[in-house]
Specification:
about 300 residues; alpha/beta; Rossmann fold; 2 domains; six-stranded parallel β-sheet; 12 helices
């Protein structure tokens, strides 16, 4: 069999899933060292895809609605212009499986699209952790070894933020449409105050969507440093390498932080299952059906267990 020369990898999001796909990205590149590999992703993750060493090109999928026939036809034309001989669909959604039909059934396809050449047909795939599920999918496609996510290649100016050390990263936000995934902000504020009393700088990460929470923490703990809206993906990874530890809700930046090697405490409610999606590594997971049930003392104890001895 002639090795594939043009390969398409599909991973559209979200951030945590994209980070956990870094191991599969590396495995695909190692398995096809001389192939031209294109990543199809959405705009928020193009920067991270281009910065990684795994792809020769990054294409943007604007995810056109199915009723926009003109845009669907333009996407089909774009996909077919790549002359791909193999596709690794790591998104495995209804949308990405539909691209199998746009490309034509003669292409080799790893995923769950009906009629594809390398189907991941495990009926319990939806009950597997993302990392194990993608490892099994790639094994079916002939790639037996998949490393854990590794962000050692990521670079950022290490002195861009003048932070007093030691510091601890706090991510008090989360998806705005899923407020049950957020630990009460007053408890983040109390923990920030405790860190400051112990001589550690709380560093707050987030976007404008977390501005209310971050302002509440800063009001309670003036020593906290607000970096919300100032950090790109590479900055977060660089901060993770320098931080003593991190605490946050089940949100994308915590996946970057954990993959960057920072000891981390992640807080899960019944809104998501850590057995399916929690980052791996030096990570402590605390879970309650409602995060309002999770007390400050338990979170503080878990975080203290990750910090160096005074």
């Amino acid at each position: 069999m002639i090795p594939p020369t043009n390969i398409l990898v599909i991973k559209l999001g979200a951030l945590g899933d994209f980070v956990q796909a870094m191991g599969p990205f590396a495995a695909i590149r190692a398995h096809h060292p001389r192939a031209h590999i294109t990543l199809l992703t959405t705009r928020p993750f193009a920067e991270l895809g281009r910065a990684s060493p795994y792809f020769d090109e990054v294409w943007i999928d604007d995810k056109p609605p199915l009723w926009r026939l003109d845009k669907i036809l333009a996407l089909r034309s774009k996909l077919r212009s790549g002359q791909f001989s193999r596709v690794y669909d790591l998104q495995t959604s209804d949308r990405s499986s539909g691209y199998f039909r746009l490309l034509g059934r003669e292409v080799e396809w790893s995923g769950i699209a009906r009629g594809c050449s390398h189907p991941h047909a495990n009926p319990r795939r939806d009950f597997m952790h993302t990392i194990e599920r993608q490892r099994e999918q790639l094994a079916v496609a002939g790639i037996p070894q998949v490393p854990p996510p590794d962000l050692a290649w990521a670079e950022a100016a290490p002195g861009r933020f003048a932070l007093a050390t030691p510091f601890v990263l706090l991510c008090p936000g989360g998806a705005p449409h899923r407020p049950a995934k957020r630990w009460p902000v007053e408890r983040f504020a109390a923990l920030a105050c405790d860190l400051a009393r112990r001589g550690m700088t709380p560093v707050l990460l987030g976007t404008h969507k977390e501005q209310a929470e971050i302002e509440a923490i800063r009001a309670a703990c003036p020593q906290a440093v607000d970096l919300s809206g100032q950090t790109g993906f590479a900055d977060i990874i660089a901060l993770a390498r320098r931080a003593e530890a991190a605490l946050g809700n089940d949100t994308g930046p915590m996946h970057l932080i954990a993959a960057g090697g920072c000891p981390s405490v992640l807080l899960f409610s019944s809104e998501s299952d850590p057995a399916l999606c929690a980052p791996r590594g030096n990570v402590t997971v605390l879970r309650r059906p409602s995060l309002a049930e999770l007390g400050e003392a338990e979170v503080e104890a878990a975080l203290t267990g990750l910090l160096p001895a005074p």
